[in-house]
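Re: that chain you flagged

S.,

Sorry for the slow reply, it's been a week of failed gels. I finally had a moment to sit down with the sequence you sent. For the record, here it is as I used it:
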Amino acid sequence: METTKKGTQVDRLDRIEDKIDKLSNAIVALARVEEKIMSLEERRVDSHERLNRLSGKIDDLDAGFVDLRAQMIFTQRIAWVAAIGAISVILAYFGVPTV
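Prediction finished late last night. Pasting the structure tokens below so you have them in one place:
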């Protein structure tokens, strides 16, 4: 009877030991998952900051293009006025009547 009791206790201790091993494996797995989550969060924050910087650069470029377009329109108008003036002078020089 005593041998059976010791065998039962040994079996119970073995099962408890197996459960403790499984729990420790689960805790290690959870720690790894937590590390991966933290790494992903850091990369997400870095990507978000980079995207914000790129968005700012795009906004700066857009503002520069708007200014450049305004300058081009002004320059184009000056060129047309100069061209029309030159044509008028040439026509006046050759005596072509104007309307």
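What I noticed first: The mean pLDDT is 91.

Talk soon,
D.
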